[in-house]
From TrEMBL:
GO MF term list: GTP binding
Subunit structure: Associates with the 50S ribosomal subunit.
Taxonomic source organism: Azospirillum doebereinerae
One Pfam family named in its UniProt record: KH_dom-like
Entry protein name: GTPase Der
Family matches, as InterPro entries: G_ENGA, GTP-bd, GTPase_Der, KH_dom-like, KH_dom-like_a/b, P-loop_NTPase, Small_GTP-bd
Keywords per UniProt: GTP-binding, Nucleotide-binding, Repeat, Ribosome biogenesis
CDD domains documented for this protein: EngA1 (cd01894), EngA2 (cd01895)
Similarity field: Belongs to the TRAFAC class TrmE-Era-EngA-EngB-Septin-like GTPase superfamily. EngA (Der) GTPase family.
Cited Gene3D superfamilies: 3.30.300.20, P-loop containing nucleotide triphosphate hydrolases
Residues involved in GTP 2 binding: 207-214, 254-258, 319-322
Role according to the record: GTPase that plays an essential role in the late steps of ribosome biogenesis.
Keyword Kinase included in the entry's annotation: no
Amino acid sequence: MSFTVVLVGRPNVGKSTLFNRLAGKKLALVDDTPGVTRDWRSAPGWVGGLSFTVVDTAGLEDVTDDSMEARMRRQTEMALERADVALFIIDARAGVTPLDRHFASILRKSKTPVLLVANKSEGKASKSGLYESYELGLGDPIPLSAEHGEGMADLVEALLPYAPKEDDEAEVDAVAVEASDEGPVPIGDQPETEADRSKPIQIAIVGRPNVGKSTLLNSLVGEERVLTGPEAGMTRDAISVDWQWRDRRFKLVDTAGMRRRARVDEKVEKLAVADTLRVIRMANVVMLVVDAEAILDKQDLNIARMVISEGRSLVIVVNKWDIVEDRAMALRQVEDKLEAALGYIKGVKVVTISALKGHKLDTLLDAVVDTYTVWNRRIPTSQLNRWIEGVLDHHPPPLIEGRRVKIRYVTQVKSRPPTFALFVNKPLELPESYQRYLTGHLRDSFDLPGVPLRLLLRKGK
Ligand code: GDP
Ligand code: GDP
């Protein structure tokens, strides 16, 4: 379970800078195509062992003649609706401006919790702005410098109460470690139960309009009952589709939403993003359908990132393969784009199919089952600790001010997606780059391709 943090505030306060810092530079580069009007951006965020989805509202405004304030209001309200917590950012150097006050008045009425962030707080010039910001009535400001990366530990502290408990099991584990010296009862040592296998795999089919989602669904279930066609969606809004393939059961989530999205025109497409997110959250495996003729554009990649940051497993379905002329080139394109945009998650399955002709549907379902299996994988603690010992021998964490953060041990606390608790003496001091290194190494060592992996830092003596 991930949570969503949205960045709001007037232009120029540093939302994008903070977004980049939380999401990692690489992602931002991919997104920032010059000259392209940005809609909102969403990416997996990561700071001090907390992982979440970060949403940046910069540039969300519609191209209309509305006043700035009206646009801001709309953008803010939309963003708040889908967030668990909002960071309201002001520029401490500029002090509180009328537009900030306007924002604050909207935010004070919102049901979503709001944390006030005083950005650009490096140096003395920010002091008066910091004090001024108390008048906004949103509690104590968190001083931060997004540009210089200062104040991130305070930000983590402030966000912590809104992070979901990793699930009760995991919480108990962590407490147990402190209370006794016996260590947690790791999920990794429990075998997969029969019940796991008999449960249907919840699938979502997502993608832009016209890529062939409905056609795919029909081919998969082998009946013309769900369908496109003029009267589709008018009456049967809550169809649940179940089917079986080999010894596995599948359940498609939210076919109604799927049809709705297939009919939206360009103008309302932005709103469909919220819909997509909702569907993703219901699924175990998400089939992201892309059109072989227009492979993995920006919007496709945004959806892919959403799937990952929501902790779901992802299969990329390149549809309409029947009409592709240069298949080698098309495949290379997919691989390059995936590497550039999702390089941090190695091994995402890409399946080329023709939904219309029913080609390669078995390969697709195989990929779904494989990915689902990895997503459910449990790794025994003994293996994990042998692994971490090896890593520490060959590539220990870097020294920080002459001291080394000590990693004590690691255990899997959850599957779906595989989630590991790493016990360290100073969780906030383990560099992000090193956390990413560990995650990548873990993925390779235990053969965990194509699914999100989570590493939780826990304080342990
Ligand atoms: P946005 O419009 O809210 O997304 O703001 P940007 O992230 O584009 O930042 C606006 C300007 O403020 C840019 O020139 C940034 O380099 C600068 N900026 C962002 N964060 C900081 C900070 O922590 N300190 C200082 N001094 N400047 C910052
Ligand atoms: P949706 O909006 O994503 O649900 O897309 P549809 O399933 O309605 O398909 C959009 C169009 O693409 C329809 O005209 C389909 O016949 C066509 N289409 C779907 N799959 C394929 C395919 O595998 N090959 C070809 N050539 N056309 C396809």
